[in-house]
Amino acid sequence: MSAEPTATIFEPKVIAFVCNWCTYLGADLAGTSRLEYPSNLRIIRLPCTGRIDFNLIVKAFENGADSVLVSGCHPGDCHYTSGNFHARRRWILFRELLNTLGIDTERVHFSWISAAEGAKFQKFITEIVEKTRNMGPYSAMKEIVALSD
Amino acid sequence: MTMSQQTQLQQKAKELLTDKKTDLVIGYGIIETGHVGTIFITKPEQSDRLLWNEECVDNLVVYLKRKEVKKLGRPAVVVKGCDARAIAVLETEHQLDRENLVVIGMECNGIRARNLLQEKCKTCDVQQPPHCDFVIENPEKPVTQSDPANRYARLEKIMAMNTVQRLDYWKNEFSRCIKCYACRQNCPMCYCDVCVVDKNRPIRIDTSATLKGNFAWNILRAFHLAGRCIGCSACSAACPAGIDLDLLNLSLAKAAEEHFNYRAGTERNSEPLIGTFSPEDQESFIR
Ligand code: SF4
Ligand code: SF4
Ligand code: FES
Question: Region B248-255: what's the mean pLDDT?
Answer without folding.
Answer: 98
